[in-house]
Design a protein that fits this description.
Shape: globular
Helix content: 40-55%
Distance between the termini: 36 Å
Strand content: 5-15%
Radius of gyration: 18 Å
Structural class: alpha/beta
Order of helices and strands: EHEHEHEHEHEEHHEHEHH
Number of strands: 9
């Protein structure tokens, strides 16, 4: 039997893909998801190229649609018998522009993917894990704005992430004492398409901050996954950068990760933007 069966929403690229890859490396069965059949197929092919004996399957799902999320959980249990760990990672950043420049559709898409998708994931995973009559874990992913930090062009994205913090803490209180543990992932500033767009627009000073604090998805995932798999705490906050880490990087302003600036300057291969987190 696999160590765990893990489902990661929004896992065809970015941090979600890196988490899926790291969970497979740890010996877990993994269920990936994305919004299109083609993205899911490409993701599975890529994962199997590096993990040929891995147990991995995928489902195309729009997390903003409750029925799609229910289908994802059902497919996971049909394939692997149970879901032990569910990670609500799916999200989009939208364009980092002033609020009045956003269309109603763009706003609705961000809210549906980030906030409604997280709520749907919790509803489905909680109900499904309770029916399994086994222990389980659900983690929601925070991001920029969850700690109240504000920046021009981030009103909608930040609002969804702050709402996720409130929502998660409420669910933690609601299900305390039950078989399902609920917690939060704070991934820090993840190198992503959204961050790349912000980086290209940023002042030299802010570029320096991104260089100091941003990390590649695979670096972050390699740290988070063992801690997620061994967590025994209800209401846990699994954070990539601790306050001490952040202070250390501030004191070393020339801190750079090889290839980071090139990754941020590189043109996006996909028009779909995946939101980066921020220290919470």
């Amino acid at each position: 039997m696999d160590k765990h069966c893990v489902a990661v929403t929004g896992s065809t690229r970015g941090l979600g893909f890196a988490l899926a890859d790291a969970f497979l490396e740890a010996g877990c069965a993994v269920v990936v998801s994305g919004r299109t059949e083609s993205s899911v197929g490409e993701c599975i092919e890529k994962l199997r190229s590096t993990h040929p004996n891995a147990r991995v399957m995928g489902v195309a799902a729009d997390v903003g649609c409750l029925a799609d999320v229910e289908g994802l959980f059902a497919a996971a249990t049909a394939a692997f018998g149970r879901v032990d760990l569910w990670i609500n990672n799916a999200g989009i950043g939208g364009h980092p522009v002033p609020l009045v420049e956003l269309t109603a559709t763009e706003i609705a898409d961000v809210v549906a993917a980030n906030l409604t998708g997280t709520m749907n994931g919790c509803i489905v995973a909680l109900a499904g894990m309770q029916k399994q009559q086994t222990t389980g874990q659900i983690f929601n992913t925070e991001g920029f704005g969850s700690n109240g930090m504000k920046r021009n062009g981030m009103a909608i994205y930040g609002a969804t992430k702050q709402a996720i913090r409130y929502f998660t803490r409420s669910v933690v209180k609601e299900v305390a004492g039950g078989p399902v543990r609920v917690g939060t992932i704070i991934p820090g500033i993840v190198v992503s398409d959204m961050l790349a767009e912000q980086y290209r627009r940023a002042s030299p000073r802010r570029r320096g901050l991104y260089s100091a604090f941003a990390d590649l998805p695979e670096t972050i995932a390699a740290d988070l996954v063992p801690r997620l798999l061994t967590n025994q705490e209800h209401g846990a906050v699994i954070s990539w950068l601790s306050p001490a880490d952040m202070a250390g990087r501030v004191l070393r302003p020339k801190y750079k990760k090889r290839g980071l600036l090139a990754a941020l300057d590189a043109p996006s291969e996909d028009s779909e933007r995946v939101g980066s987190g921020a220290p919470g």
